[in-house]
């Protein structure tokens, strides 16, 4: 069978990436083909180097070329504070916001009865082991999980598993987003906002 057209093949590969449809992939490929030395070859080399060097951190599960990752090795971080996230994309989002100066733990998903994902499929045991052997000791675990049924189930399960360790367990606040108008929010968001109210 003959090799596929290299342009179509490249467009097809790029179109599989999140956020890129076939039209966006076609524009990107055209741009790269117009300047292969400046755009395509450096990208190909960067992809090859990243594929060879990047790996999951053995402590938290973040992706980095160093192992442990730069966050886990950073002495300026608060090592007594661990933020539990569903995946690496949520970790990166929190880092972009510069909102968390502690460490992280990537679960690798959430519990899902329909999806057949149980506790053994997630990085729960490594989290418990981190807390038990931590020096300095972990003071607080922040559950930064999605505001979904699966996220709430996972948070409840983790809370039960963490209770015997004596560590404080907290969750992200949920409710009205900054700039959000009440009349366009769904009932679940409004209910969560009322339950999470605080004194002013």
TrEMBL record:
PROSITE patterns hit by this protein: RECR (PS01300), TOPRIM (PS50880)
Domain of life per record: Bacteria
Zinc finger (C4-type): 57-72
Similarity annotation: Belongs to the RecR family.
Record's keyword annotation contains Thylakoid: no
Name the record gives this protein: Recombination protein RecR
Source organism (scientific name): Paracraurococcus lichenis
Keywords recorded for this protein, A-Z: DNA damage, DNA recombination, DNA repair, Metal-binding, Zinc, Zinc-finger
